[in-house]
Amino acid sequence: MFGKIASEALGLSDIGKVIKPQDFDKVDSDDYVMHEDGEKIFFIIKSKKDEYCFTNLALIHLDGDSAVSKKRMLKRYNYATNEISSVFLETAGTVDMDVEIKFTIGSAHFSIDVDKKQIESVKDLYKALIKISEIVDSNETLFDYAKQSVGIAKESLGRIGSQGSSPVEQFNAITESAYDWLRNKHKELKVKDFGFVFEKYINQ
Hints:
CATH topology of the largest domain: PH-domain like
Helix content: 25-40%
Radius of gyration: 23 Å
Shape: elongated
């Protein structure tokens, strides 16, 4: 504990700061946001070596080797293909200088220290990530139901048959209809843009 206090007092810890919206264009991660495709930044945490940029489409992580190195590894986690789970917020104790937000996105695990003076902003991020996690989990369940229901429908239609059409024609008609139905369900339930969640919970 005393080592941690000494580290923070000497400025050696890597506690992040929440960047204000008016300064979003001053951080490095802004260069990698796909503004041309309507991507928008909603939340940035910047520490000495890392940047965590939350947009409506993805988490962009600029991973630094160390506080004194300019070398960075750029990692992008699209929400549509990387499910957010295990979201936790650890508040500060009496002697702590930071709060900690933890979550998993895809197979990557994050634990980000943030200045405890900015706890209210971190709470907003926590709520947004929790909501995205809930929406994705619910929609995955509904899409599984959709796939099961179309399978049942195909089996039922196959048993009933259709007068005046060959088995090949029946198969093609059923398959094409099932494909179109599932494609529409996929478009409906596989959300890519979560700007509406961030707009609701992030206090800009």
